[in-house]
Amino acid sequence: MPRAFIHLMLLVAFTMAGCVPYPHTYQRIPNVTGSVVERGVPVVGAEVCLGEISEDGSFTPTSTPVMTSADGSFAAEGKRRMRLYVLAAPADSFEKWAVRIKAPGRDPVVYARRNLRAGPVSAPESVKVCCDLAEVDVCKVIEEKNGKW
Prior knowledge:
The chain has one helix spanning 3-17; strands at 21-29, 31-38, 41-42, 47-53, 59-61, 66-67, 73-76, 79-86, 92-102, 109-118, 126-132, 139-145. With 149 residues, the protein is mostly beta strands. The protein has one domain (3-145): Sandwich (Immunoglobulin-like).
């Protein structure tokens, strides 16, 4: 049998079975913008870093830290990844991303989010947060923009 015919038959068999992997990028960690305040007063020079939270709760940075400006605002770039997705078996997955804030003279504070992903869905493309270091629940999401897959 010609080699091209065998390749064609394998392609047809995988297609008929629904197991057609296709590569694509997805938003693993969103782009995060926002502000850091303490009781309404902007926190200047706080280090903000995006990262992932492991099962044991430890923080792993995935971005270069950015500093808050004079009005307490910041913009941190998220992370996209490449993956293969098999159409026949969409599976749910949990992924955790976090924002770590290290204000001058204070211990770091971590705000974590967990995403439930079903199929080829991504994390939000961008998230806007307001973080008040005086609050127990440090950051509040005030806007979330979802991307397309």
